[in-house]
């Protein structure tokens, strides 16, 4: 079998399984299984693929056909300009979450300042590490309830050359944190509990429940975090939260009720209101 035939077979299998992006996913999986670059994938279409290599590639395609996400199969995922390893306790980072990174960077007047950041529910560490990669003198603390997520995030800091400026610890939101920060970020779990059963299998079966379930109305973690913002932030400090579809105004009201102002709601690339940013008064 040559690469062209293998590719066609993989795409057809993913299409038949109802995968949204069969061509893209087949390419990622075949490149990974056969150690091909993107260029190889196009220029070596006629190359013969040994049977055992083809079998290995098709085994990955079968996992995807069973609705395991590509990132879980590969074990890592790109986010912003960094690459993050995943583990069973870390949410697979989503492109929508880059809205939070953009929202924070857009509100920082001096990127060289020695800012102190904290990221609640850090997961892979994606938000904190992406921000540290853009803020050369900043330091950050990532907090997560899951020890395995904390371990994964620390590994991701090493993987991206940011370990000297990033710390990670287990914790229940801001309990026990007495320091003050210039920037508080979080992408907390925000799916209403009753909606979890309706999520796509990629999410429901492969992302950790603890990373998804935001309580009866999806807003429980925001209520807890908002209540601590005033004591966590320095005067003039920034807070930025990722929010689920339809939650932006409620989350904005929660942070404003704690005395924050300059509230802004920012949209993701799909036009969905995805981030609420606010500032503590000077
Ligand atoms: C939606 S995920 C976000 C992960 C990562 N920040 C991202 O954007 O991909 C929410 C994270 O919050 C963590 N979490 C849930 N409850 C928590 C709590 N009480 N305290 C701290 N972290 C919590 C979960 O373990 C999960 O890693």
TrEMBL record:
Single GO MF annotation: nucleic acid binding
Naturally occurring in which organism (per UniProt): Azospirillum humicireducens
Function: Methylates the class 1 translation termination release factors RF1/PrfA and RF2/PrfB on the glutamine residue of the universally conserved GGQ motif.
EC code(s) of this entry: 2.1.1.297
Origin: domain of life: Bacteria
Methyltransferase domain: residues covered: 115-197
Alphabetized CDD domains for the sequence: AdoMet_MTases
Every Release factor glutamine methyltransferase N-terminal domain range: 6-75
Keywords: Methyltransferase, S-adenosyl-L-methionine, Transferase
Entry keyword annotation includes Methyltransferase: yes
GO BP annotation list: methylation
Similarity comment text for this entry: Belongs to the protein N5-glutamine methyltransferase family. PrmC subfamily.
Protein name as it appears in the record: Release factor glutamine methyltransferase
InterPro entries: DNA_methylase_N6_adenine_CS (IPR002052), HemK-like (IPR004556), Methyltranfer_dom (IPR025714), N5-glutamine_MTase (IPR050320), PrmC_N (IPR040758), RF_methyltr_PrmC (IPR019874), SAM-dependent_MTases_sf (IPR029063)
Binding site for S-adenosyl-L-methionine: 121-125, 144, 173, 187
Swiss-Prot/TrEMBL catalytic activity: L-glutaminyl-[peptide chain release factor] + S-adenosyl-L-methionine = N(5)-methyl-L-glutaminyl-[peptide chain release factor] + S-adenosyl-L-homocysteine + H(+)
A matching Pfam family: PrmC_N
Gene responsible for this protein: prmC
Residues that hold substrate according to the record: 187-190
